Amino acid sequence: MKGVWHWLKSSSKMKRWIFLVLIGIVLTCYGIAKILVQKEMEFNDAGKVVITFVVGFTCIVLGLIFLNKRNMELFIEATDDRMKHRKNVNVKSLIFDRKIYDKGPKIVAIGGGTGLNTVLTGMKRYTKNLTAIVAVSEYGKVPNNSRKALETTLPFEEVKDSIVALSADRHSELDKILNHEMKNEKLRGLKFSDIYFTAMKEIYRNDLISIEKSNSIFKIIGNVIPVTSEEVKICAELENGYVVEEKDKIAEIVNDRMTKISRVFLKPSNCKPAPGVLEAIREADSIIIGPGSLYTNVIPNLLVNVVAKAIKESKAIKIYVNNIMTEPGQTDDYSVQDHIKAIIEHCGDGLIDYCIYDTGEVIPEYIKIYNKEGADLVEQKINDPAVKRIKFIKKNISTIMDDKIRHDPYLIAESAITLICNDMKYQDKESDPEYLMLNAKLQSDKRINKLKKEKKKSDKKNKKKGRENNKQSRNKKQSKFSAKYSDRIKSIRESGEKYPRELKK
């Protein structure tokens, strides 16, 4: 009864459609009754009966359609987290989004760190079928006493960040909770996520099951899978032959010894991918690699046994998102083609179909900040024969966040979805519901982004005009000299005026 009452309350907007269905039933029944009762009927009367029947039937059909539509809207209102604590939310767009999420393309994002999370944040707007294959790169790091006490086997830092990135509400309390650093003396150096995953391991006796359960517990959009469940170290061999076996010290030692990375490798080299990794790659519509630390987050994922082979054999669109800035100790003086050549040298050709790289139109003031730290803009060289097979796409994918140059998650997602839509066009899938919905969403987002850019430009212009007007008004009012010596100037003028009067006398 409670559910029926919820239907009939004034805010539900269901009564009008129920009433329309009832009218339709009455009119239809009246038309049928007239036909059955009367043996003979004039042409005009027959016409009226037919019209009554048609109108009634139309009312029933329309009523049922709108009744079903409104029922779906009520379901979305009750179950969608995006409706909570928010005003003026378009429920129709939420239904539309739901369809896109459920039937959207299967996307696999491979990487680690902020780069991977940037991709995930943008892509979750277009599809629910997301899989994050995360680097497990904290082995080799000396644990503190608190971490030793937990006896964890799999490092969960990267996994935790990807779960936060894929959470239904990016601005929820999840980020704050999982990244909370414990203040208790015995737990110092631990985050709540460390304790949480340790508890999950005790319950389910398995790291991978713990992560799988966490995906559903936190109701994330998609899945997070570590690239391997085995203990591996990321090692680097430098050009001078020196081998570094601690990931965190690679950049430092490279700078100290004034050399470069020759290659990176995993120890042990025969580590197997975690369950679900290869399946996700094989079933993917698109595979996105990067952005991120080239030698410590991107390439190590591809070095896990059979992963690179699976990507090469996959029919998915393979997209590499290039870094905007170089990374000291890893990619000093690297160009776009140098990043790709490093991947080819480690894993072979066939991993990348498209490379998306930034236009480099970054405000010089922010570049100078990076220059002080030894970083610079990635040079836009793409003329090497080794990268000829790859299609390069130059896009404005950068933004400024907290005075740092970052990839814009939504511009990356827009670029990737455009490539997917173009591929579907090539396959003559323009009438496919998935294409229609995806393309409509893409065009809508492009219009919104265009309006945002125009507003940003106009705000800048207005701000600049305001500053100029204020400056002019200040200049008009008084110079610094006149402000300082105004009293003295006044007295001089008064004496000058007095002197001629005295001469006249």
Explain the overall architecture:
The protein starts with a helix and ends with a helix. The longest helix is centred in the last third of the chain and has 45 residues, at 433-477. It has 2 domains: 2-79; 97-427, 3-Layer(aba) Sandwich (Rossmann fold). With 505 residues, it is α/β, with parallel strands linked by helices. The chain has helices at residues 2-8, 15-37, 43-79, 91-103, 113-123, 145-150, 157-165, 174-178, 192-204, 207-217, 250-256, 277-283, 294-303, 307-313, 336-347, 364-372, 409-426, 433-477, 480-504; strands spanning 107-111, 130-134, 223-226, 233-238, 243-244, 261-267, 286-289, 317-321, 354-358, 391-395, 398-401, 404-407. The protein is built from 19 helices and 12 strands.
Summarize the structure.
With 505 residues, the chain is of the alpha/beta class.
Annotate the secondary structure layout.
Layout: H1 2-8, H2 15-37, H3 43-79, H4 91-103, E1 107-111, H5 113-123, E2 130-134, H6 145-150, H7 157-165, H8 174-178, H9 192-204, H10 207-217, E3 223-226, E4 233-238, E5 243-244, H11 250-256, E6 261-267, H12 277-283, E7 286-289, H13 294-303, H14 307-313, E8 317-321, H15 336-347, E9 354-358, H16 364-372, E10 391-395, E11 398-401, E12 404-407, H17 409-426, H18 433-477, H19 480-504
Parallel strand pairs: 1-2, 1-7, 2-3, 7-8, 8-9, 9-10
Antiparallel strand pairs: 4-5, 4-6, 11-12
Helix pairs in contact: 2-3, 3-4, 4-18, 5-7, 5-17, 9-10, 12-14, 13-15, 17-18
